[in-house]
Fold this protein.
Amino acid sequence: MISDPSKAERDRKRQVREDERLRVARSRRRVILIASAVAAIVIAGVCAVYFTPMLSVRAIEVDGAVSVSETDIVAELDVPLGERLVSVDAGAAAQRVASIPALASVRVQRMYPSTVRVTVTERAAVVFVDEPDGTHLLDSTGVDFAVAPPAPGVVRLVTQSPGPADPPTESALTALDSMPVSLRGQIGEVRASSVSDVSFLLLDGRTLVWGNQDNSERKSAVALALLSQPGQILDVSSPDLPTTK
């Protein structure tokens, strides 16, 4: 029998096409199976997050609180135990806690599987202001955050309108902040009638005239040298021409 080469070639090509069709079909089934498995995992994850207590809030941690009570922080946080962790709006919760005046910064984090962490930084009193309702504590930016007795080392501020938007207050705080510890430790009161008229009352009763914020490092060095000199008024507003009287 004589075989037909053209028929053999057609049969070979037909077999190749059939093999390719079967390969594509198997590949499609594999993709469908993988996609179905992934979808099942995603659905299971969504169900775990939204419909089971596995990822609900079961603990609230507060870090950084010293003078502000954790009870007050948790109350302002307003995140109930049992709430789905994924539903906690960390930004909004941080804003609520930041309404506590004594806090300078607040960060709220969702810590999976079941914790909300609140990290706070408290304001530190730098000066105090005597008001009819008591002693007001101000931080380095001039924010009035508490009415309480000042701690040792906190300086009295005397200015017409103390506060963060008041230029004389800002000038006084900047001058105070620029001082080395050796000089600042001898300051009992800072007065500012304007941005260029800042003076300090020393603990020994003498007055240190500072002037504006310029040349603070030079003024501090000259002031420290003048402390050993006689005189009730030490003027370093022009540090190259200091005077005492």
